Every structure is written in C-alpha cells, then in structure tokens.
Amino acid sequence: MDLRFSPEHVTLREEADAFARGLRPTLEHDPEWRRQGMLSDGDSREITRALGAAGWIGMTWPIELGGRGLTHVDAALVEEVFGYHWLPLSLYLLSYKTVGCALERFAAPELRERLLPAIARGELTFCQGFSEPGAGSDLAALATRAVRDGDRYVVSGHKIWTSSAWAADWIYLAARTDPDRPRHRGISVLVCPLDTPGIEVRRFPVLGGGYLCEVFLDEVEIPASQLVGEENGGWRVLMATLDFERVTAEKLGGLAWVLDELERTLEAQGRAERARERLDSLRGQLEAARLLSLRAADLLDRAEPASAASAMAKLAGARLAQRLAAEASGLLGLDGLVDGEPDASLGGRVGSLVRAAVASTVSGGAAEIQQIVIARRGLGL
Amino acid sequence: MRFDVSTELALFADSVRAAIGSWEPTREPDLGSWQDDRDDALAARLTAAGWSDLGSDPEMLGAVVAGAIELGRACAPICLVDEATLGGALWVGGRARHGLRASALVAPAPRGGLSLVRACGSVVPERTLDGSGSVRVDVATVEIVPQAEASARWSAWAAATLGYLAGVAERALALTVAHVRAREQFGAPLAALPAVQARLADAALAADGIALLAWSAATGGRGAASAERAWAGEAACEVTATAHQLHGAAGFALETGLHRWYRRARAVHGWSAAVSAALR
Ligand SMILES: Cc1cc2nc3c(=O)[nH]c(=O)nc-3n(C[C@H](O)[C@H](O)[C@H](O)COP(=O)(O)OP(=O)(O)OC[C@H]3O[C@@H](n4cnc5c(N)ncnc54)[C@H](O)[C@@H]3O)c2cc1C
Q1: Residue A368: how many CB atoms within 10 A of its CB?
Q2: Total count of domains within chain B
Q3: What are phi and psi of B235, to 5 degrees?
Q4: A205, A338, A352 member nearest B254 (Cβ)
Q5: For a FRET experiment, which of A57, A217, B59, B280 has its CA 20 to 30 Å from that of A89?
Q6: Which of A69, A90, A124 is the last residue of a domain?
C-alpha cells in the first residue's frame, strides 16, 4: 500500500485550486451561495458551464467522449478541492459523477455518444428521479410506470426529493416496466429532457438553504432508444449509480475548509489550545473519511464490487459533517449560531452547516441503509 | 418523592397551552436572514393566562416549569422565558436575544449576579440559525439587582430553560413517533423496525431525563447549576436530530416545520452555555 499523492496528483490539485479560486468572485455576492449550508449541494448552471468549458467535467471518461481519461481517484482529489472552495456542485455531481458515470457504463453506444460529450462541456445537465412518495429507503417499491408502446415508453408517476430538477435539462428516471415480475426485476432506467410534454416540476425550499423538487409525469413519451441498460435490468443500474454517488469527496473538501477555518479562528482568539484534543480528533476523523472515500474511488476504477466501500465512504462523510457542525457550533459559543453574516467567524457558515448537515445522513440513502449495506456486503452478515 | 404533577400545576399548564393554541410563527423562515418570532398577541394571551413576571417568587418555580414546557412544545418565542423569569430580554457577551423592542435588558454577572443594563450605541440585528432575534449591542449597567432577587431569578430562568428544552424534546419525539407509525416502507410502518425503535428509545430516555431535571429544578433542585442545562441542551439537540433522521427527507422540507424544534434546541443550548460562562 502507498497512500501518498503522486506528483501528477499534486499538479492536478494545484490546477483545480487555481481554477476554483478564479470562480470565487462570481459567487461571493450571490445570496443563494451564502444561504446554502452544504455548498456542494448548491445549484448553479453558470458554474457548471465554467467547469465544462475548462475540462473539469467527465474527467474519467475517454477523450473521445469529452473526458480526460483520468481515474476516479483523480476525480475525487479534484472534487475535494472544489468542495474546499465551496463551489456549488449539485449539477456537476448529478450530471457527471452519478448519472454520467452510470451512462458511461450502461448506456448503448449511440446514447453515450449523444449525451456524454454535451455533459462534459457543461451544456447538458441531469437530475436523478429515483425517490417517490411511497419509495424512499425502500426504493424497490417505486411505482412510476413505463409502458412499452412500439418504439417508445409511456411514463406516468410522481418523483419527489429530486435535487436540481428545477435547474437541470434532463432527468434520469427509475420506472417500473413489468409490475408482474418480482419487485427488483421489473425496473428500468430511462432518460429524457425535462421539457418533454407531460412533465411538471415543482420546487420547494429545504432546511439546507436550497431547494428540492417534485416531478410529476403524466403520460410522458420517451423513445425506447433512451433506455439505459436492459429493460427490467434497471436495479443493477440503480445500485451502480448509487455506488458512484456515495463517494462524497466534495463534502469532505468543504468540511476540511470548515475545520481549517475553525482552527484558525480559535487560534486568533487564543482558544485553540483548550480545544486541541477536539480539533485533533476531528482532523483524524477527516483523514480517515478521506481515505475511505479514496478507497471506494479506487475500487470503482478497478471495476471491483464497491457497494460496501462506497457506503462506508458516504457514512464516514455524513457522520463527520454532523459532528463537525455540532463541535464548531459548540466551540465558537454564540458565534456558532450566526448564519449568513459574511463578516462573522467562518464567513457566517457555521449556522448554515448546522442546518444543512441534517440531510447528510438521509440523502443518497439513509445512514441506516448504508449500515445495512456495510453489514451485508462488507461483513457478509 | 413524588413523580406526578400536581393538579394545580396541570391546570396551569392547560391554561398556558390554551393561550398558545395553535400558534406558529407568522411566516416561514427566510434562512440566512435576520429572524425574530416575537409575537405581541401571543404574549398578551399568555399574560392573561398568568404567564407574567414569575421570576422573583421562588414559590412559583413549579408554574415556571409547567409553563415553560408548554412554550417549548410549541417552540414559542424564547423571549417569553426571559421576560417572565428575568424581567427583560437577555443580554450576554455583546448580544441580546429578542433585543429589538425589549422592555428592558438584563445581563448575567460573575458569581450568579444579575444586572439591569441599557443599550449604548447602535443595535445591529444579526442573522442567526433561528428566530431568536439576536442583535449585537453594547450595554452599560443601570442597576445591580440585589443578590437574593438575582439568585431567585436565575433559578427561575434555569428551571424555565430546562422546561423549555424538555418541551422541545417531548414535542420532537411525539411528532416522530406519529410519523414512524404512519410512514410505511418495506411493507410495514417504520415503527416496526428494531433500529428505529432503538433510536426512539434513546430519544425517549433523553426527553424524560430533561423533564425530570426541569421538575427537580422546580422543586428546590440545584437551581441555577449549569451542569443540568449543559446536558439537557445537548440531549435536546440529540432528540431533535433523531426526529430529523427518522422523518427522512420529509423533515428536511421547510413546509413540514420540524426544523423549528431542531434549530431552536441549538439556539437555546448555545445561549444557555453563554449564560453559564458569564455567571461563573
Ligand atoms: C438533500 C436531499 C437530496 C435528495 N436528492 C434526491 C435526488 O436527487 N433524487 C432522488 O431520487 N432522491 C433524492 N433524495 C431522497 C433520498 O434518497 C431519500 O430521502 C432517502 O433514500 C430516504 O428516503 P425517505 O426520505 O423517504 O425516508 P424513509 O425511507 O421514510 O426513512 C425515514 C427514516 O427511517 C429510518 N429507516 C428507514 N428504513 C430503515 C431501515 N431499513 N432500517 C433502519 N432505519 C430505517 C431512517 O432513519 C430514515 O432516515 C434526496 C434527499 C435529501 C434529503
């Protein structure tokens, strides 16, 4: 084992750092950027386009599909840097890391060639329509129906908690294509533009400071060529998609910034020594979470089973987010309640992190579901 | 020892509850903005129900706790606690909560002291996590409250803070129990899952623990001691975190309102710790 960065990693991170720094001035005056407590959950088409134009989207894809032929470990190291600079990354994460990487693996060559280069340029963005009112942790209960009719599917249903649907161009949908088969074997994945007739998006505010959406689908016609993977073979596609989603390197980057700033602030106030043990333990927890996340990325690179490792990565990041939010708020006293004052400690971000951290053990699969994956897939229980 | 609440106090709690009615903050929070949920109409109804200046009379500690529990259950403006127990809005460490339109400002002083203070200079609203109406303001002491009255008022405030936290925890727990009974996943209510039951059991023992500390403070327990509030604040934060966890994404949507108890628990805990430090 050698867990050191290579010289190429260092250079790549420096490049990412310079790029992200350049974007900061466009963000600092945006009230949405201030309100969003888990910044990597923020939505910004502008930032997504800038990321695409500079070649940062689709890093792991082949050059002919608009990528750079890098590894998931490389991408995770870059995402940490973007997170450290609090870039709003939701559209990037959905379009490239989650949906895009699943498309790269499962979509037919024509569909891949149609979508991936546009995603890589930052010109095509995706949201992910899995959850439904009756299907949250129990995703296999999903009831959205896709009925085959010649060369198209007709889809009706109701998706909920859909991140970024108000800002995205396309949706990646999980739908039931065969209600007579066992639950996990009758699901398929389809993609379509959000302006397809029959789709309605409602956006609502959430505690993190941004929005989630509901997506209503009423007899939406989707060409059969936009099926991802095999008909009724969608469960495998969904699980692989979640493996990509659960490596949350960008969150760890944001948390690293919080911890650095917290330490700096306490030092300036002459209070760091009293808090040293806590700060050290948080730093240790962060480093462990980073390595868990990079290990999962490495398994994805090697196309090995990654579910348990990516569930660990996700859970480690989520636990750290909640602990760091609570510890930072406690260590800063009343300053730790400030939410949205740019001149306050940590740019007034601690209060918003306290709000937003609530979702870290829910989104992308509840903590208890990650525990089940770790216990079953990792420990063989 | 008796662990039941007297009829008299139960009746008082009922009248406070009736005065609160179905009170909710008048508008959805604008996250990251200055928020102040002070509500004069609610304050007037509570005064009529007997929730007025209770802080200087040690005989009233039971009523203070009974009423504060109801306030916490409703996540009512925290100035109602400060005004009824300390006689004014609370100022500590350069900040006052509900500091705009406060009838008076009071501040903790070392060794359990209490001072009446007045604002000098500008009063600057500060955006914080919840609707506690935080303002930054410098103050000058107007009057030092006599020690006997100061310690009576701090005892009442500490008991009320514990009561408020107990109400917050109890309500967050009750909302969650109702949610997991109604919400079905995997073909059964979430409530049937052992992991869910275990987490709720932890929340229940925290909520009961906080309530017992509050009643203990009401009946001549350790009064203004900070240890009970330190734990109760953490425990109430934990219970509201459990509430969010078990509500899943539904709790994250602002429209469900669960966030009010989550945010308030943290604000009350933070202010309580700041007061403890200032009283030492
Ligand atoms: C910020 C955010 C963004 C999201 N973005 C998307 C998105 O883009 N697309 C999308 O499809 N979905 C999205 N979701 C939804 C997310 O996938 C679901 O919230 C998650 O799967 C949990 O489902 P649920 O909210 O319905 O909770 P429920 O399934 O109702 O569960 C509630 C709680 O019960 C407990 N629980 C549930 N099952 C078990 C179990 N088996 N054992 C023990 N405890 C259990 C857990 O504590 C859980 O949090 C998002 C959610 C959030 C909060």
Answers
A1: 19
A2: 1
A3: -65, -40
A4: A205
A5: A217
A6: A124
